[in-house]
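User: Run a structure prediction on this.
Assistant: Running it now.
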Amino acid sequence: MPLLLPTELQFATEYAFSIPDDAFREFQALIRKINPNERCTEKHILETFKKHMSKPAEMEYGKSSSIDWARGDLESCMEQASQDGPGFIAALYNACEQVSLLEINVPAELYINQILSRHGLPCHINNSELILAGNVKIPESNASASQTVVRALQDAKTLSPASAIDRVHTALHAYLVELCHQASIPLETGATAQKAFKELKSNHAALKPIGNRPSEVANVLNSMAATINALGTIRNHASLAHNNELLLEPEAQAMVNAAMTIFRYIEECIARQKKT
């Protein structure tokens, strides 16, 4: 199915962003890796991409007279289309979709998203929809958070889920350390987020399980500690900070949501303590 563009992009009068040169070259290389088969020649592949790129390029489409001309014409069309970043991405995606109908192997969303993340482009593709950065919901900062946390949360609002993991982990780590300091809980210099949370869980009055089922609540808190540890591992090996193995979007969003859950839980516990 065609890539869906957000309404604010579909009817925009100005381009939201352009495709930088380095990303442009990577997308070119991606297209060159698409191999023809008996049903689909190389020229047909080139013409398909050129036809889709002609829309964001605002050029009239016409078939090239030879394969060499098709290569050159496609490059010119892509260069013009690159000024309209969202349109360029949609054209690339839709051309891949059309070519794939002829049993041609084409790059999956993952490969396109890796290029977008690598070059800091403010969007990503998820389930055939172009998602603008900022759709990752981050809790509003409050007076209990340090300025480091505030900056990290603001940065996360402008990133895709896979890219936001680094910033969210930074926010969580700084937030937990800040709470330890505010509560005068001793903490070694350079303590990990998991260590800071364990100290809070053991020594902060607001996080003492109360009410019904305290043992089960304690088990949930222990699971949160394991979640924080896993977030640290993912941050170090599968986020934009270390993008050798970027997470797929659903898993990345799940990691962001897990961190947000921990933020919200701690804040609500502290708010409850202040009321009593």
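The longest strand covers residues 123-125.
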